[in-house]
Write a structure and sequence with these properties.
It is built from three helices and twelve strands. By secondary structure, it is mainly β. The model has no long low-confidence stretch (mean pLDDT about 95).
């Protein structure tokens, strides 16, 4: 589990297909290597991935993850290339502060940025969600976009908007987010279960 509070921005160092259905991805980060162990979970742009190797190169820690067919097809991971930047968050430990909302790292789909309005102190990002996910998105509700916990500002049809404060712009990849970009979308777990209960009734 995660909270959607990004703790580092990593850089994709390599993407190596191991087969048609599996890519080995290496990401450089600022986490201490001693704290990264094989089998640990790290949310990479909101996708929960398992560490399968670690090392150091050019003074930076790196870790490797494997992305299988479903991840490559349903998230933005299949489009990652050398030099790309990704939001990172290590998994929760008992006693950690829940600063955002509970995020599973199980991406539900890809949302597309359709507008960005830069204001004096923040940015408003408007996105189009996949049609099957729109009923789970509500004003004042929570979503995770590329692993960042955000509060939904407004919803209209299949579009919704979020406000990005200066701190978030500084410590995530959102400063470089533009119209036409895709982001990984995870809906709030509580919304998913509430909808399922309604369907059952």
């Amino acid at each position: 589990m995660f909270t959607g509070i990004v703790t580092d921005v990593g850089e994709v160092r390599s993407v190596k297909p191991r087969s048609d259905n599996l890519h080995r991805i290496t990401i450089a980060c600022d986490y201490p290597r001693a704290e990264l162990i094989e089998g640990a979970s790290i949310a990479c742009a909101g996708v929960c991935m398992t560490v399968v190797g670690t090392g150091e190169e050019d003074g930076r820690t790196w870790f490797a993850v494997d992305a299988a067919a479903e991840t490559l097809a349903l998230t933005t991971v299949g489009r990652w290339r050398h030099g790309g930047r990704v939001n990172l968050e290590r998994s929760l430990k008992l006693g950690d502060e829940l600063g955002g909302h509970l995020v599973a790292g199980h991406v539900d789909g890809v949302a597309t940025v359709i507008a960005r309005d830069d204001m004096t102190d923040m940015a408003r990002i408007t996105l189009r969600a996949p049609p099957q996910l729109t009923r789970f998105i509500a004003p004042k509700g929570s979503v995770a976009l590329d692993g960042v916990s955000l509060t939904v500002n407004a919803v209209e049809g299949d579009t919704f908007s979020v406000l990005i404060i200066p701190h978030t712009l500084q410590v995530t990849t959102f400063a470089a987010l533009h119209q036409g970009d895709d982001v990984n979308l995870e809906i709030d777990t509580m919304a998913r279960y509430a909808a399922r209960l309604m369907d059952a009734q």
